[in-house]
């Protein structure tokens, strides 16, 4: 019975936390297939849970509680090392998720101790551990009960709020939140441990006052966590919305300018007709042909500013191509798309990130600075390919540099788009059932982004 209590108690306490640190990341972030990693986590958790009672019953441990704590600490360290190796993400993101899960673990530990103490004081139940045991029968029940209550809440938080934060907020913007999370988590754990150790030496009423203080601290920490993640995602959305509004403003000004240009063109056409009529009356046919060629060339150049029928895509192309040319970057574009079942804000964020990355890369090149854009629809998908000159790119050492297309996670900070804009592009493409792949050709000094988005009506 003691063997079972220790095994079940450790597994219920450890396994949900070990599982949650892997959940916020997309499939492409794992070094191995996601399902196999989860299988390994489950098997490892079961193995270490069965190992704890063996160690405690071997007679080697003089202090059962201390041995159990050291065993848990060792398992956490090994889990952290495996987690860092198995996930292809920036260290700050991985540590941020780890500290969030550590907060959940400390919260569960706090609740179990509070509940078992209350049962002991109020109902007079025995909560003492048996010899060579780190978990009492009451403690195991409390761990199962708290896991049943907390796990659905924390899984929802991890799979929604935390995953959205990880995928949409750039790493450079996480530093402040990261420091706040570390400090607040350490404060919470330290306060919880202080209260836990102090309660054994205090009367029941005094412990209630400490428990009330801990509850206030808990609410404070939860509010901090919630506000940090929600506020960061909201700030990112506001920035994307401002970018969309700016492009719409530029597009509106372009339309207003086109209307004015058309009015002037009608006025100019009267002069063209009069000139042509005068040349015709005088029989100056060669001069008339040259004049017509000049008028046609001017009209074609004016019409070429209209890239496609989709107003959002056309506005984005006009804005970023104009921005690139102002920086001395040769830019060519071909687009053929009409109405798309894609939110204009998502198009703006994705295409904006891709073009900003391309422009930034071109600015670091020498005189040969260029961007080539192709946009079209293939069956039920929107296909985008953006190629540009790029002096260098840094790949994660676990990816082979074979000039092939790679996921966003392959490119590290300091390369095309800093490695983070690419993840935002990939996240937006996946939102529409598509994908985004990237390639750096070291010989040709060229970076290429290929994006596919599902635009079928059911999406």
What does this structure look like?
The protein is α+β, with helices and mostly antiparallel strands. The protein has helices at residues 2-20, 34-57, 64-86, 91-123, 137-168, 175-199, 204-282, 285-303, 311-326, 344-363, 421-431; strands at residues 330-336, 370-378, 381-389, 435-441, 446-454. Strands 1-2-3-5-4 form a 5-stranded mixed beta sheet. It is elongated, with a radius of gyration of 31 Å.
Record the SSE blueprint.
Blueprint: H1 2-20, H2 34-57, H3 64-86, H4 91-123, H5 137-168, H6 175-199, H7 204-282, H8 285-303, H9 311-326, E1 330-336, H10 344-363, E2 370-378, E3 381-389, H11 421-431, E4 435-441, E5 446-454
Helix pairs in contact: 1-2, 1-4, 1-5, 2-3, 4-5, 4-6, 4-7, 5-7, 6-7, 7-8, 7-9, 7-10, 9-10, 10-11
Structural classification: alpha+beta
User: How big is the Rg?
Assistant: 31 Å
Helix and strand succession?
HHHHHHHHHEHEEHEE
Poorly predicted sequence stretches spanning 5 or more consecutive residues: 200-207, 300-304, 415-419
Share of helix, binned: 55-70%
The main β sheet shows up as: 5 strands, mixed
How many strand units?
A: 5
Please state how the strands of the largest beta sheet are arranged side by side. 1-2-3-5-4
Briefly characterize the structure.
This protein is an alpha+beta fold. The chain is 66% helix and 9% strand.
Descriptive tags:
Heat Shock Protein 90, 5-stranded mixed sheet, elongated, alpha+beta, 459 residues
